[in-house]
Amino acid sequence: MGTRTPDLLAKIDIPRQKLYYLEQKGFIKPQKITIGDKEFREYSDEDVRKVEFIWKYLKKGFKYKIAYEKAMEEIQNPQLSLAKAEKPASS
To answer: 24, 57, 76, 89: which sits with the fewest CB atoms below 10 Å from its CB?
Structure first.
């Protein structure tokens, strides 16, 4: 079972309208679940991770497209974020 919108908003602390904008632009693709007459969004672990990284870059001031590109680069090359985190040892 995926993550529903309220849980994702609480976990990442992203405004709802920004989350829905990411979906509108096609950066994430939550599954739509209908229960009775209500429709819910369910986000995969991959979508949650994308939102986490995209939001990190949006908060740094990047535009949506660049934030998405940087997020995908970091997700596909995890060693990039590790290399940035490591500091060279001083002699």
So the answer is: 89
In a domain, 50, yes or no: yes
Number of domains forming the structure of the chain: 1
Per-residue pLDDT reduced to its tens digit, 17-75: 999 999 999 999 999 999 899 999 999 999 999 999 999 999 999 999 999 999 999 98
**Do residues 41 and 30 touch, judged by C-beta distance below 8 A?**
yes
Asked if the structure places residue 55 within a domain, the reply is yes
Range of the domain at 41: 3-85
User: E strands of 17-90, at which residues?
Assistant: 31-35, 38-43
